[in-house]
Task: structure prediction
Amino acid sequence: MIIKNETLKSMKKHLTDTDINNLERFPKVNLMNSATGYKSANLIGTKNPKGVTNLAVFNSVCHLGSSPALIHFTLRPHTVARHTYENILETKYFTINQINTSIVGQAHYTAASFNANVSEFEATGLVEEYKNDFYAPYVQQSAIQIGCEYVNTYEIKENGCLLVIGAIKHLYFEDHIQAKDGFLNLEDGQTVCINGLDQYAVPKPLARFEYARPNEDIKEKTI
Result:
């Protein structure tokens, strides 16, 4: 099967970099955060040395490599308090917990600016879960949980944002969502994604394809 896309005939709105820079703050933020498409929706769990837990919603968690298993996420410039990042630097551990349809509102509420001595777990009703003596808390309601150890931070000089790298030490997921080839069917875990900063959506799988090779038709997987 070869997929052919018809040329879209509708006229598209055009903005130059100057146009974008001249937009008011929030329309510009909303536009640029949604223009790149749907993103992963995760809660990062940490705990400071005093034992106060923290939980924050992130749409920037990405796979970085499988051997070794690494992830990364980005943070805005560390010019104000960033409790998640500060806890990670102090303790070296954090968890990544996929957001699902049953906890969307609670997950989004973690974006509120709580004081450092307030736990977002307590504020939202999400449940702390500890496993295998891992320091940072997992979200019990999450179908996919990842325990990470801090590796490094790289400053993005162009805008001051921080790219944080973690090594995956533990991975937990509900057994029924895994296919025979190892693939995780996120739909079965009711995983949601994020468009922009505040719209949550449920993705619907369209197809999985076999490995693409030049001069061969694209074939769908039947797993």
User: Anything to note?
Assistant: The CA atoms of residues 72 and 165 lie 4 Å apart. The chain is about 15% helix and 30% strand.
